[in-house]
Amino acid sequence: MRPATYTLAIGDRINVAIASVPEFSAVYQVMVDGRITLPVIGQVDVQGMTEPEAAQHIAQRYTEAQVLVKPTITVVLAEMSNLHIAVLGEVNRPGAYVMTPQNGELPTLTEIIEKAGGITQQTDLQRIQIRRQQRPGKERVIQTSLWKLLTTGDLSQDLAIRDGDSIFLQAAQNIPSDVALTVGRSNVGQAEIQVNLLGEVLTPGLKAVPIGTSLNQAILMAGGLTDQAKKKSIELLRLNPNGTVSRQKIAFNYNQSIDAQLNPILQNRDVILVDRSMSAKLTNKIGNILTPINSVLSLFNVFSPFFQKTR
User: Fold this and answer.
1) How would you classify the pairing of strands 245-250 and 234-239?
2) How far is CA 49 from CA 28, 72, 260, 290, in A?
3) From the candidate CATH numbers 3.20.20.150, 3.40.50.2300, 3.10.560.10, 3.90.1150.10, the one assigned to the domain spanning 83-171
4) What is the domain partition of the chain in residue ranges?
5) Of 177, 187, 217, 180, whose CA–CA distance to 201 is shortest?
6) SS3 state of residue 239
């Protein structure tokens, strides 16, 4: 997405239209010094300005130079330059990335994190920091929470990322008391919880199950596994109180008694992923039915039914 407050960057190409002098109208590129070169008045600094600000500044320069009188000027972004973005901290592939905007749209935070290999199991999704350079030489620090995106569907947390941004993902530490109360590990006061089963079960989807239900019992409530299920590697995803998302792989056994590692008791908003076996994939000539869970967008997709049902 491209916000209305998008500011022009080095390498951008802009369409400058001057109503009274169409021969001055053309597409200009913002050079490395942040300027464009216009007819008669020469170089004009536009880096860091919005389109309306750049139009106003250009009009002012033509007026001050006594070239035009009250000119009507519009500036429209014609083509974005490549974006240079740094991703640091709790991602699988931290480093510097060059992104090419698609169809004039800025990439979002979740898209950048996915480009960096996705989150780790230690990522604190509640406190993600974006550092953005502002003119003149000042830095703006923006805080956002992808935890809110996962748990409430607040898409405003998935911010547009701009050229020169640095993204910092911290490791989770202490559990905030308000989060512990609302998303805590206990299910006190609830008669039942909601879990989401995806993939190779007979009736996938959101299920209301009694408190104390185990993973095996939830799978049976969903009709059991299909013949194509990958029984040796069922995944349990859990939103933790400290803002992380944990991932546990479990070898399924119908006869397994309750066990924290082999047949755990489920918590509210747990997600169970049952992938297809390799032989089934080859037989059906299809790829993996479940995208990697370290992608925030994939996490949003699997956890979103919990809040969609209550809105």
Assistant:
1) antiparallel
2) 15, 18, 56, 42
3) 3.10.560.10
4) 13-79, 83-171, 181-308
5) 217
6) strand
Q: How far is CA 139 from CA 134, 158, 165, 192, in A?
A: 5, 20, 10, 48
216: helix, coil or strand? helix
End-to-end alpha carbon distance in the chain: 25
Match 């995106």 to its residue by tokens.
Answer: 149
The tens place of each residue's pLDDT in the chain, 311 residues long, gives 566 678 898 889 999 999 989 999 999 999 988 899 999 999 999 998 999 999 999 999 999 999 999 999 999 999 888 899 999 999 889 999 998 887 778 899 999 998 898 888 788 888 999 999 876 677 899 999 988 888 787 889 999 999 889 999 998 876 554 444 444 443 444 578 899 999 999 999 999 999 889 999 999 999 999 998 999 989 999 888 777 888 899 999 989 999 989 999 999 889 999 988 765 554 444 333 344 555 666 777 777 787 664 44
Do the domains at 83-171 and 181-308 have one common CATH topology?
A: yes
Architecture of domain 181-308: Roll (3.10)
**Which residue type occupies 113?**
I
Least Cα distance to 162 among 232, 245, 86, 243 occurs for 86
Q: Hey, how many other C-beta atoms are within 10 angstroms of the C-beta on 70? A: 8
Q: Which of 95, 96, 94 is nearest to 122 (CA)?
A: 94
Supply the pTM of this predicted model.
Answer: 0.63
